Amino acid sequence: MQCLIIPLTTVPKGTWTCDKCVINELNKPSDDFGFALAQRQYTLQQFGEMADKFKSKYFNMPVHLVPTDKVEQEYWKIVSSIDSTVKAEYGADIHTIHHGSGFPTGLALSGNEDNIFYKSYVEDHWNLNNLPILKDSVFSFINADLSGIKVPWMYVGMCFSTFCWHNEDHWSYSISYSHWGEPKTWYGIPGASAEAFEEVMKETAPELFHSQPDLLHQLVTILNPNILMKANIPVYRTDQNPGEFVVTFPRSYHAGFNQGFNFAESVNFAPADWISIGRECVNYYSSIKRVCVFSHDELLFKILKSCDELTPKAAALVYADFKEMVKFERVHRKALFDWGVTEADFVEFEHKEDDLRQCMICNTTLFVSAVSCVCKKRLACLRHFKQLCDCPAQMHVFKYRYTMDEFPPLLRKVKAIAETAYDD
After folding, report:
1. 367-405 pLDDT, tens per residue?
2. What's this model's pTM, rounded to 2 decimal places?
3. What are the alphabetically sorted keywords of the record (predicted)?
């Protein structure tokens, strides 16, 4: 009633509608933006035959004679054309857990030089199955096999198949390896320019972001790098050839397309210097109500429990992030108790399903602390406890995994490891 041009104080009798609301509803897209799943299933050979036939026919020449710059020029011509009817298919996000990896993952029979050579590839640090779980790699402390983050995904591309502008979950690093085939064209934007990039994207297509605010998290948005560069966004470009790695850094937006039939594999990884960036990301996710892939604080405590294995440099980075978390808990727990909450319960959050331990306000996955109320089964984080419900403070319950007294010994332990670097 309030959005009518002349606001109403009571609901009129009979059938009535608000013209403004009707127009807004009609302007919404019928479905979320995105890519449709192909109706056909391919073997690798069938997909390759289809991809080569498509490219050869499109450019009217053998696939190996088509210059990369010609493909790039045509790609952006297609993207900018409203009337374009070109369709490309992409074997994207193929789980290596189910289909195997392009890298060797098991030991062959021992006893000859070939098997020794094979074994070295199985154990090599550049094998993407090993890289995320190397010593001092933060993701090595995650127990679950998070596909795409801790376990590689494979990609089978064809000419014009696209990966849209995005950055990695939890702003982690990513690494991609091209096993074979035609080049993959990449565009990258430094993490320091991420916010400026997001603003340009929203200004360029405000109607799309209005109907789907989290559009950049859906991997469905492409924009010509020339438009970004005109807005003073730095954009870098490369063609990834077989046998080459491409690494993206935290919060770095990247996009691109395939020049033709190829096969690549990628995974996320997180050296110790990512830890503070990961916390910054979770705080950002909270501000936009995005669901986390994992709990940052739970990961931090898993690292702390095994901190004897850390190098001094990694321990120093863990110590700094832990101090930040303790400071947050001290300030916000005091605010909660000052508000009037007196009851508290110990909870082992790690034994709850993630969707049952999310803040109902910002969707953050909870681990160290939370707040509940007798009127609801849902939880809120310490940032949003007053928004949980309208009940008085006395009806709320503080849920905690650790008391404040448990933090100082852990802080001292990891700090001692960090300071061993200066004992030499």
Report:
1. 999 999 988 888 999 999 999 999 999 999 999 999 999
2. 0.85
3. Iron, Metal-binding
